[in-house]
Amino acid sequence: MTDFSPRIPEYWQAQFAGDALGPESCTVNPSLSHKRPAMILTRDGAPSRMTVRPELAACLGQLASTSLSIEDQKTALIRSGITFHDPDHLFYLPEDGPIPTPARSVRKLTPDDRSAFDIFHHEAPEADHEDAFVEWDHWAVFGCFDGDRLISAASAMLWENSPFTDLGVLTLPDARGKGAARAVVLAMLDFVRSQGLEPQYRCQIDNIASVTLAKACGLRLYGQWIVAAQPPSPCHS
């Protein structure tokens, strides 16, 4: 098994701390964000884990005391009106893994690059914006240029109450397959590590191009993470 920094499992263990709910690895955690009232983490070779806010535990009712699996409890929450997002892969760097030098020139963007970034963002397909989530006002932004034209950018946000920065990468369609995305991600990984933080790379499990990019940058799969959306009203039985 890949050796990750101890900070990574320590963070996830804390997320799933709380009072046990049922016979499987399910807990009630009142400190969970209302925006993410339930979450599930699966890892190869380890039991799946689930945690919920108290109001969702109440939705499960007597089901929590039965031998239902986590998948069955998830199904029960869905029937109660809870929506789960599609699962994300979680990628992190191995603790002592070297970060390759980018093959293309990349630099951290400065206020002088704002106009180039705005043009780049406008050129990128609208459908890519939500998946990539690369924004000018994030904690750090790196870019790869072709002349004066910004063709790929990676940004990172500080991940709430954690040692992580959450990465996103966006590349213009005509610049794909030329190493620009790998270059900006590698530069960001190196910068994040230099700040004493752990880079976190998330992508949907069916996004083959993003999974391939993560592996090409030396990131390793930690597990799959599924979160519930904030319900518009208390769930019903």
TrEMBL record:
<feature type="domain" description="N-acetyltransferase">
    <location>
        <begin position="104"/>
        <end position="237"/>
    </location>
</feature>
<dbReference type="GO" id="GO:0016747">
    <property type="term" value="F:acyltransferase activity, transferring groups other than amino-acyl groups"/>
</dbReference>
<protein>
    <submittedName>
        <fullName>GNAT family N-acetyltransferase</fullName>
    </submittedName>
</protein>
<dbReference type="InterPro" id="IPR000182">
    <property type="entry name" value="GNAT_dom"/>
</dbReference>
<dbReference type="Pfam" id="PF00583">
    <property type="entry name" value="Acetyltransf_1"/>
</dbReference>
<dbReference type="InterPro" id="IPR016181">
    <property type="entry name" value="Acyl_CoA_acyltransferase"/>
</dbReference>
